[in-house]
Amino acid sequence: MSIEMHYYHMIYLDSAASYPLLPEVKKTLIESLDSFANPSSSHKLGEMEFSRIEEVRSLIADRLGALRSEILFTSGATESNNLAVKGCVLGSGKQFSDVHLVTSQSEHKCILNIFSYFESLGCHVTYLKPEATGVISADQVRSSLRPNTLLVSLMHVNNELGVINPIEEISNVCFEHGVKFHTDAAQSFCKVPVDVLDIEADFVSITAHKIGGPKGVGALYVRDLRSSNIMAVIHGAGQEEGLRGGTLPSSLIAGFGEAIKCFPAYYSDNIARLENILCSELGGGDIDYIVNGGGVERVKHITSITLPKLNPVVLVRETENEFCIAQGSACSSREIEPSHVLAAIGLDRELASKTFRLSYSHATTEEDIKMFAKRIGELSRE
Ligand SMILES: Cc1ncc(COP(=O)(O)O)c(C=O)c1O
Fold first, then answer.
1. Residue 181: pLDDT above 90?
2. Can you give the pLDDT at residue 309?
């Protein structure tokens, strides 16, 4: 069955954009709204809010193998990425023209925009081109490093392809060369192990709404935060070690904590079956398709599929009231330009326009997938 909520009756295949809110999280959010005190206040109610927040901070730290004092709350992965990269470059005290940074062509748009901003200020940036599978290798990173490389920022799981970068190896290369390493783990946190005892990451960005939590809250892990010279991006009244000002959204943080506790039980092996079902339905219906990022390790909830014989405009127009799917990624799906990720792995404009990202949740059923494949079959014959 489709996810049925009060405002739509559609088959939702876009969990990588935002995962359906978990029922336990919804309950926690509603209950926590009554606790209105400011967590920075020194009175009893303020202290109670503060200690609830600290419990979630500990939970996040446990999940990441980190210390509680190394976690900063933010509004989501976009802000975490900004704080990590801007905080690191500005905090280095170096002249922009002396700074070399490394990232990849297939990062989330927010990372690409931060890096292009630093390029405009005079920093030197290397944008690594992923292999045809979408993966960046540790060797590519090694050969990109220069004596003045300050930071490497590479995502853990690609949000359009679902491929997993070998960040343990990549982080080791950075560590050996004394270069800071940031990973955007928005798509991997609670889905693929992210443990800073194994991964030599200096910064890790995470967000709640990719794991059934609320939008508008996330966190940044900063290794040895108190001795790091990271610079604040949002100056405020001293919250979050003076590195991220603003009253903490305690309800959203409570919802984030509940999502972290509950999500693993929802992210079950049932999800892993769905791509195979899709492929066998399409194959059985004699429909040409290519799964992008094939042959490498991928997360189980994302399928990037190219349908070479299908008119994508017809698919979108004819099924817009039936399915929620993404062409490219959600943040760029209203742009006319084809996805930069698909271009980076070598798809031409035409094939990129015929590529869709399906992303599943615990609520996605075999019937949903069969229905999608059936509609593709019908529209391919039109
Ligand atoms: C890899 C990646 N990074 C960053 C973001 C942005 O996250 P948020 O919506 O929490 O700012 C997303 C989600 O769209 C993402 O998939």
1. yes
2. 92
Where do the domains of the chain lie, and which CATH numbers do they carry? Answer: 3-20+266-381 (3.90.1150.10), 23-264 (3.40.640.10)
How confident is the model at residue 95, as a pLDDT? Answer: 98
Q: Which residues on adjacent β-strands are paired with residue 72?
A: 220
- Poorest-pLDDT segment among 30-44, 69-83, 313-327: 313-327
With a 6 A CB cut-off, is 15 part of the ligand 1 pocket? no
Q: φ, ψ for residue 344 (rounded to 5)?
A: -65, -30
For the segment 202-211, what is each residue's pLDDT rounded down to a tens digit? 999 999 999 9
Question: Reduced to 3 states, what is the DSSP secondary structure of residue 97?
Answer: helix
Q: Which of 80, 83, 105, 108, when mutated, tests ligand 1's pocket best, judged by the most ligand atoms within 8 Å of its CB?
A: 108
**249 Cβ inside 6 Å of ligand 1:** no
43 C-alpha to center of ligand 1: Å? 36
Q: How many CB atoms lie within 10 A of CB 109?
A: 16
Smallest CA separation from ligand 1 atom 16, residue: 159
Retrieve residue 298's tokens.
Answer: 């991928």
Instruction: Say what the pTM is.
Output: 0.95
Tell me the CA–centroid distance for residue 101 and ligand 1, in Å: 21
CA–centroid distance, 12 to ligand 1, in Å, is 18
Please state, as a whole number, how many other Cβ atoms lie within 10 Å of the Cβ of residue 96.
Answer: 15
